[in-house]
Design a protein that fits this description.
With 366 residues, the chain is mainly alpha-helical. The chain is built from 17 helices and two strands.
Length: 366
């Protein structure tokens, strides 16, 4: 019996991973924007603790794969020696602002679409188009200009990667012990902080969401890095992310006969299908459309900001926030800071009525 082609195995794995992710998010309400919103508006850190638990597990599992030699995280896009610090900060802030405007980030919008939310369909279409326009189209020159004026080429300093363990090794620390110590410190610290709260532990659905999402990030690296290993046609190392893959999915739908299925496209389809099946089974499937002109404008604006900002930052709240973070890349920490700032600014803007008023509240200006 002939073995399945590596590409088919990887794409099948991406579909199954997306199915699991979509079902989990739909069932547990895991959401980066929701986590920030709960904390800022209600003082409730429960969903943020679920996100931190996911981050801790993703770091521990992914770094474990790397240190055991199963996966080389140095080959991931996040760990390149080209440190685009300004793009990470500004793009992250734009993405964070946009995800509040659109009612959720890329992954959450995919799940909402699967559950019948047509507003998310509009946001996703705009996200995909603007992401592609920023990668390869009209906005590409702006992205290249920003990279040209701000990106730091670490190779010029003899540094092969922006991953924190590599930077620590350059500072004189032993490379592998530094990686192990950093992974344990951050991974167990984040997971331990999340689980230290008795109120959070009393919410098994949220605990499950954090554990599940963290393991999905690890599984993504394993699928592309282990199952996708092929000396003649290797699969690009990746895990779950939802900016460029949404754009790729739109192109694939339009040019099926001339396009190749990828792990990212498969996971996007799996997310929608997983959420749809779960919503149908638990009775939460509802067709939802726009309630006003402002509602439509907010989703259009949010989708555009997520598409452009996500490409500038090299990822979304999942792609940089969890997948990138699991590689311990410096730009991922910067992008997370930008996303959090943008989301808080957007939430305060909704409260105060303008960005200027929101800034006065955030920075204590009179």
């Amino acid at each position: 019996m002939n073995e399945l082609p590596v590409a088919a195995v990887v794409n099948g794995g991406g579909l199954l991973l997306g199915l699991a992710f979509g079902a989990l998010v739909q069932r547990t309400n895991f959401c980066t924007m929701g986590a920030i919103s709960d904390l800022v508006l209600m003082g409730d850190a429960s969903r943020l603790r679920a996100w931190l638990l996911a981050a801790g597990i993703a770091i521990l599992g992914s770094q474990g794969l790397h240190m055991s030699g199963q996966v080389d995280l140095g080959a991931a896009i996040y760990a390149t020696p080209n440190l685009g610090w300004l793009g990470a900060l500004l793009g992250g802030a734009a993405f964070g602002f946009g995800m509040v405007q659109a009612g959720g980030c890329g992954s959450r919008s995919l799940v909402r679409l699967g559950a019948g939310n047509l507003k998310s369909l509009v946001a996703l279409l705009v996200l995909g188009i603007t992401a592609y326009a920023t990668l390869r189209g009209l906005f590409g020159p702006v992205r290249q200009w920003l990279e040209g004026i701000s990106a730091i080429d670490l190779k010029a300093f003899g540094i092969s990667s922006q991953a924190l363990p590599v930077l620590l090794a350059k500072a004189g620390l032993p490379a592998e012990p530094a990686r192990a110590a950093l992974a344990l410190l951050l991974g167990t610290g984040l997971a331990g902080y999340a689980l230290a709260d008795a109120g959070f532990r009393a919410k098994p659905r949220l605990v499950l969401s954090g554990i599940g999402v963290g393991l999905i990030v690890v599984a993504g690296w394993a699928i592309t890095g282990i199952l996708g290993r092929d000396d003649f046609d290797p699969t690009p190392l990746a895990s779950v992310t939802f900016v460029a893959p949404i754009g790729d999915s739109l192109v694939y739908l339009m040019t099926f006969t001339g396009a190749a299925l990828t792990f990212g496209i498969s996971s996007v389809g799996g997310m929608i299908l997983g959420a749809f099946i779960t919503a149908k089974l638990d009775g939460s499937f509802r067709i939802e459309s726009f309630t006003s002109r402002d509602d439509l404008i907010g989703h259009l604006r949010g989708g555009a900001l997520m598409g452009i900002g996500g490409v500038f930052a090299l990822g979304c709240s999942i792609g940089q926030g969890l997948t990138g973070l699991s590689t311990l890349a410096l730009s991922s920490f910067l992008a997370i800071a930008g996303i959090a700032f943008g989301a808080v600014l957007a939430l305060r803007t909704l409260e105060e009525g303008s960005i200027a008023a929101a800034c006065r509240v955030m920075f204590g200006a009179r």
